[in-house]
Design a protein that fits this description.
Chain A: InterPro entries: Glu_synth_asu_C_sf, Glu_synth_lsu_3. The complex is a heterodimer. By secondary structure, chain A is α/β, with parallel strands linked by helices. Chain A has one domain: Glutamate synthase, alpha subunit, C-terminal domain (Pectate Lyase C-like). In chain A, about 10% of the residues lie in helices and about 25% in strands. Chain A is built from two helices and eleven strands. Chain A has an eleven-stranded mixed sheet with strand order 1-2-3-4-5-6-7-8-9-11-10, covered by helices on one side. The longest helix of chain A has 14 residues, at about 185-195. The radius of gyration of chain A is 18 Å and the shape is elongated. The model of chain A has no long low-confidence stretch (mean pLDDT about 95). Chain B is of the alpha/beta class. Chain B has helices at about 20-30, 100-115, 130-135, 150-155, 180-190, 210-220, 235-245, 265-270, 275-290, 305-315, 325-330, 340-345, 370, 375-400, 420-425, and strands spanning about 35-40, 50, 75, 85, 90, 120, 135-140, 160, 175, 195, 230-235, 250-255, 260-265, 295-300, 320-325, 415. In chain B, helix 9 (about 275-290) runs parallel beside helix 15 and helix 10 crosses helix 14. Classes of the chains: A alpha/beta, B alpha/beta. The interface of A and B includes residues 61, 76, 100, 115 and 140 of A. Bound molecules: flavin mononucleotide. Flavin mononucleotide binds near residues 39, 95, 355 and 365 of chain B.
Chain lengths: ~220, ~450
C-alpha cells in the first residue's frame, strides 16, 4: 500500500506517480484530499485507489481500468469521460457526475446533483439516492439506474441510454418517454444492481428511453428543436 | 450569379433581392431554416480594406530575395513542457472527420506536414489516417466530446478547448444523417443516419473559473506536456480573451464571423459575431493589458485567403493564422473541373456550399465512399503544401517591403485603412491621414 498525504505531497507529484508506466504498487491510499481538484485523473492502469475524504472537481476524470473509491463527497464532473474501471462515491456527487463517460461503472451511494450522466457514451451509472435535473441530457449509450427520485427534464434529447428509476420522476425532457419493462430489461437491471452491490428489486423500477422522434429534422417537431 | 435580364427597365429591389425572394420561397415550401456550409457570404469590412506602408525614405526595406525574413512561430511557451514550433504561421483549422472524408483529413495532414505546420482534428475525434500523416496535430476538446478519449489525448501535440466558432458563436454543431456513415456513427457512439446536433455548452463546466479547473485537469492528465489552446468565436473578444488567459490558456484561437463551417443555419452564419479584422485589435489589447502579448499566442482565423491577409493579421497582433475554407479549396473544393456535377446538384463551381448534404463532387465534404475515393490524399496534400508555400512567400514579401526581418515584427504602424469603417475596426489611420476613428489626434 502506497500512501500519499495531500496535506504535504503535491497533487502534481501524485498524478505523475499514478501515470508512471510500470507501477509496482497496486494499492494506493490518498489522505487529506480536502476538496482538491483533479485527484487521480488520467489513470491508465488497474490500480486500486482509496481516497479518504471529500474531493473537488473532476476526480478520476478519464479513468481507465482503475478502481477508485471516494470515502466522502465528490465535486463537479467526477469520473467525467471515464473509459473503463470503476469509481465509487460513498457520499454525494455534485453536478455532471459521469459526464460523457464511455465505459466502466460509476456508483454513487448518496445523491447526485444536476446533469448526472450528461452526454454519457456507454458508462453504467448507479445512484442509490436521488438525481438532479437535466440528468442524462443527450445521453448516447449506457445505463443510468436511480434508486431514488429523478429531477426535472430527465433524459432530454436522449439517444440510446437506458434509464431505470425506482422513485418519482419530476418530469421527462423532450423525446424521453416511459417504456415497457421487458424481461431483458429486468435482467439487465438486476446485473447492474448486483455489480453496484445493491439489493433493490429490479421489478420495482420503471424504464425510460428515447421516443426517437427527434432523430431526424421534421417540420412538425419544430417547437422541440 | 448574374444573368442577363431581358428587359433593362426591370428594377431589382435592393431590399428584396433575388436571393432574398428565393429564400422566402424556400422557407414557405419547407418550413425549416436553411442549413449550409461555408462562412458568411455577405460583404463585411475585411483585410482588403487595409494597405501596407512600404519602406522608402523614413523606413529601410529588406532585400527581397537575399535577406532573411523569419516565419517560424513557437506556440505554447507559457506552461507546456513541449511547445509546438511551426515553420510558417499558417496552420490548418479544426474540421471534423464526419464533415470531411477520411481522405480529405489525410490530405490536410500531408499538406501541413510538408511545410512544417500543424493541423487540427474536429468534432468527431481523431482518425488514424490523420494522426499518421500529421507531424503536428492539435486535438479538439469540444462540448460534444465525440470520440474523446485519453489515449488520443496523450497522442496529441496540443489540445484545443473549443468554446465557439466564428460561423456560429453560441451555437453547437450539426451533422445531418446523410453523413453519419457506419464509421462516423461508431466514432461518435451515435445511431447511423440520424440528424446529429452537438451541444453548444460543455457538459461539465460553465464559467471561466470552472474552465480554469478543467484546463488544469487536461494538463494533469497529459502531465503538463502539451500546449492548451482555447478557441472562441469573435463576439465580446476583449473580455473573452482576458478570461481565456485567466483560465490558463497557452494559446487563444480567435475565429471571426467570416469563418467557415460544415453545417449551420444560414441566419446564424450571416448575423452573429464580428468580423475577423475587428476582433484582432480587441484581442491584442486584452493580451497587452495583461502583459502576455506574444507569451500567450494568438491564432486568428475567419476568411484568411492569401499572404496579405496573413501579414495583416500578424501586423494587428496575431502570432499565426488558421485556414479552413481556403485549405479545402486548395485540396480541390469548388474546382471548375466538377462544373457539370455541381450543376446536377443545383450548384456551380465557385458557389457550392451544401457541405451538409454529403454530395461533394470533389470527395471532400462527404462520407460517400465512391465520392471520397476521388480525392487522392497525396496529390491533394501536395496542392495544399504549394498553396501554403505561396501564402508564406507572399507574407514575407510584404514584411520585407516594410523592412521586417521576421513576420512578427510587422505592427499596426505598418498599416493604413482605405475607409472609415476599417480604420475604426482595425484601429489604424485612414490612408493619407493621421486619423484613427475613436482616438484623439
Ligand atoms: C468543413 C468545415 C468543418 C469544420 N469543423 C469544425 C470543427 O469540427 N470544430 C471547429 O472548432 N471548427 C470547425 N470548423 C471551423 C474552422 O475550424 C475554422 O474556424 C474556420 O473554417 C476558419 O475560417 P475560414 O474557413 O474562413 O478559414 C469547420 C469549418 C469547415 C469549413
Amino acid at each position: 500500500m502506497t500512501t500519499y498525504d495531500l496535506s504535504t505531497d503535491s497533487l502534481r507529484a501524485l498524478n505523475q506517480a499514478l501515470h508512471e508506466e510500470e507501477i509496482s504498487a497496486r494499492e494506493w491510499r490518498i489522505t487529506h484530499p480536502d476538496g482538491a481538484h483533479n485527484i487521480a485523473c488520467g489513470v491508465n492502469d488497474a490500480l486500486c485507489i482509496d481516497i479518504d475524504g471529500h474531493v473537488g472537481y473532476y476526480c478520476a476524470g478519464m479513468n481507465q481500468k482503475a478502481q477508485i473509491t471516494i470515502h466522502g463527497n465528490a465535486g463537479v464532473g467526477v469520473a467525467e469521460n471515464m473509459m473503463s474501471g470503476c469509481v465509487r462515491i460513498k457520499g454525494d456527487a455534485s453536478q455532471s457526475a459521469g459526464a460523457t463517460a464511455h465505459g466502466g461503472l460509476l456508483v454513487i451511494e448518496g445523491n447526485a446533483s444536476a446533469r448526472c450522466g450528461i452526454s454519457m457514451k456507454g458508462v453504467d451509472i448507479v445512484v442509490k439516492g436521488n438525481i438532479g435535473p437535466m440528468s442524462a441530457f443527450m445521453g448516447q449509450a449506457g445505463n443510468l439506474v436511480v434508486c431514488g427520485d429523478a429531477g426535472e427534464a430527465l433524459g432530454d434529447s436522449l439517444y440510446e441510454v437506458h434509464i431505470y428509476v425506482k422513485g418519482e420522476v419530476a418530469s421527462l425532457g423532450a423525446d424521453c418517454v416511459q417504456k415497457e419493462m421487458r424481461q431483458e430489461h429486468v435482467d439487465e437491471l438486476a446485473q447492474l444492481l448486483s455489480r453496484a452491490g445493491l439489493d433493490d428489486d429490479p421489478a420495482s423500477f420503471k424504464r425510460y428511453g428515447s421516443a426517437r422522434e427527434l432523430y431526424n429534422f421534421k417540420v412538425d417537431n419544430a417547437t422541440a428543436y | 450569379m448574374t444573368d442577363t435580364v431581358f428587359n433593362p427597365a426591370l428594377r431589382e429591389s435592393a431590399t428584396f433581392g433575388r436571393d432574398v425572394i428565393a429564400e422566402i420561397q424556400r422557407a414557405a415550401d419547407t418550413g425549416i431554416y436553411d442549413i449550409r456550409g461555408w462562412g458568411a457570404k455577405r460583404k463585411v469590412p475585411h483585410f482588403d480594406d487595409l494597405l501596407f506602408l512600404g519602406a522608402s525614405m523614413s523606413r529601410y526595406p529588406l532585400e527581397g530575395y537575399r535577406e532573411k525574413c523569419g516565419t517560424e512561430v513557437t506556440l505554447g511557451t507559457r506552461y507546456a513542457k513541449k511547445p509546438i514550433v511551426i515553420d510558417t504561421p499558417v496552420t490548418i483549422a479544426g474540421m471534423s472527420f464526419g464533415a470531411l472524408s477520411a481522405q480529405a483529413k489525410e490530405a490536410l495532414g500531408r499538406g501541413a506536414s510538408e511545410v512544417g505546420t500543424s493541423t487540427t482534428t474536429g468534432d468527431g475525434g481523431m482518425t488514424a489516417e490523420e494522426r499518421g500523416q500529421s507531424s503536428k496535430l492539435v486535438y479538439q476538446y469540444l462540448p460534444s466530446r465525440y470520440g474523446m478519449n485519453p489515449d488520443d489525448l496523450r497522442k496529441a501535440d496540443a489540445i484545443e478547448v473549443v468554446l465557439g466558432q466564428g460561423a456560429k458563436p453560441g451555437g453547437g454543431g450539426m451533422l445531418l444523417g446523410q453523413k453519419i456513415s457506419d464509421r462516423v456513427a461508431a466514432m461518435r457512439t451515435l445511431p447511423k443516419g440520424i440528424d446529429q446536433r452537438s451541444a453548444c455548452r460543455h457538459p461539465d463546466w460553465t464559467g471561466p473559473d470552472d474552465l480554469a479547473i478543467k484546463i488544469a485537469e487536461l494538463r494533469e492528465i497529459t502531465d503538463w506536456q502539451v500546449p492548451i489552446y482555447i478557441k472562441v468565436g469573435a463576439t465580446r473578444t476583449y473580455y473573452d480573451v482576458k478570461l481565456a488567459v485567466k483560465a490558463g490558456a497557452d494559446v487563444v484561437v480567435l475565429d471571426g464571423m467570416q469563418g467557415g463551417t460544415a453545417a449551420t443555419q444560414d441566419v446564424f452564419i450571416e448575423h452573429v459575431g464580428i468580423p475577423t479584422m475587428a476582433a484582432i485589435p480587441q484581442a491584442t489589447q486584452a493580451l497587452q493589458e495583461m502583459g502576455v502579448h506574444r507569451e500567450v499566442q494568438l491564432i486568428v482565423s475567419g476568411g484568411i485567403r492569401n499572404g496579405a491577409d496573413v501579414a495583416k493579421a500578424i501586423a494587428l497582433g496575431a502570432d499565426a493564422v488558421a485556414i479552413g475554407t481556403a485549405a479545402l479549396i486548395a485540396l480541390g473544393d469548388n474546382h471548375p473541373r466538377f462544373e457539370e456535377e455541381y450543376r446536377k446538384i443545383g450548384s456551380a463551381a465557385g458557389f457550392y456550399d451544401d457541405f451538409q448534404e454529403g454530395k461533394c463532387p470533389a470527395g471532400i465534404s462527404t462520407q460517400d465512399p465512391a465520392l471520397s475515393q476521388r480525392l487522392d490524399p497525396v496529390a491533394a496534400g501536395k496542392r495544399l503544401a504549394n498553396y501554403l508555400r505561396v501564402m508564406t512567400l507572399e507574407a514575407q514579401t510584404l514584411a520585407r517591403a516594410c523592412g521586417k526581418s521576421h513576420l512578427h515584427n510587422l505592427e499596426p504602424e505598418d498599416l493604413v485603412a482605405l475607409n472609415v469603417e476599417a480604420a475604426a475596426m482595425a484601429r489604424v489611420p485612414l490612408a493619407g491621414t493621421n486619423w484613427v476613428p475613436g482616438q484623439a489626434y
